[in-house]
Design a protein that fits this description.
Blueprint: E1 2-3, H1 7-18, E2 23-25, E3 32-36, H2 40-50, E4 59-61, H3 76-85, E5 90-95, E6 112-116, H4 121-130, E7 134-135, H5 150-156, E8 161-163, E9 175-178, E10 185-188, H6 194-201, E11 228-229, E12 239-243, E13 254-256, H7 263-277, E14 284-287, H8 295-307
Bound molecules: adenosine monophosphate and magnesium ion.
Amino acid sequence: MIFLPTLENIQNVLSALRKGEVIGLPTETVYGLAADATQDHAVAHIFEKKQRPSFNPLIIHGYSQDAFQGQVIWNDKADMLAQTFWPGPLTLVLQRSPSSSLSLLASAGLPSLAIRVPNHPVALNILHLFDGLLAAPSANLSGKVSPTQASHVEEDFPDLLIIEGGSTSIGLESTIVDLTGLSPLLLRPGGISREDIESIIGPLKTPSFSPIKAPGMMKSHYAPSLPLRLNVEAPLQGEAYLAFGPTPYEGPHILNLSQTKDLAEAAANFFKMLRFLDHPPFHGIAVAPIPLTRLGLALNDRLQRAAAPRAL
Ligand code: AMP
Ligand code: MG
């Protein structure tokens, strides 16, 4: 359902976001499926709605550069780009700060975060009043084109609370620049030109692989250091166990993704539980079978990548 951005409707959006629900948010690039970026459950609902068979890291939207204080580690180039192009269609990838309160699921387990300040009055108003950060990928079902009007969002998500923000002025995704390495990388061309960015921070390199098409293949992508065994009903001696649903096993080496076999709950817990178990004295992590439906597809995709032999 599409709602005009009246005071009352914005209040409804804010309370939905606080409850961990997903809403349709206009930005200047494309409409987003937005949820509270600090709540794992809320972020899991975004992935559930999009029906994407894998987790990709989401862009985190804030009201201003200050809103990201304590979430990422800033550097001079990031500072200059933010001051020049924000609010606007430029996403910066920076190291996640150890003090970050953002959901690990929102960055698909990566040690970095992609952040941006959108240049749209309705998005900025909501971010300001929400006084927090919103994770938001484009508001289309996986495989469909990005929505540039509220009605496009409604076609894919008829039950979603969508705020009307007119036709998006840019209509193209944000440019993504990765500033976590020695040289800045252009991860995705978009609403701000390469030349404009290079005029501020100098030459951008283009990665030889495409992290956008296959985020799980990114070099920096979190892979557990312990070996994983999948579809395991009974863990071996010395293995930690990531259960799904009722299990007879108990102890500090057992974590349960979801006692009730709720896939959204499992997705919300996935990255933090995997990290938690990825330590000695365990010498491996066994993972229970997870059904290949809904969010289970993305969970299995991520597990398979993590269990695959590592390229050197
Ligand atoms: P969008 O489809 O506009 O929501 O943008 C999401 C894209 O941003 C992902 O598919 C990644 O390519 C990129 N991205 C998001 N977070 C990160 C990150 N932490 N590191 C690298 N790229 C990221
Ligand atoms: Mg998209």
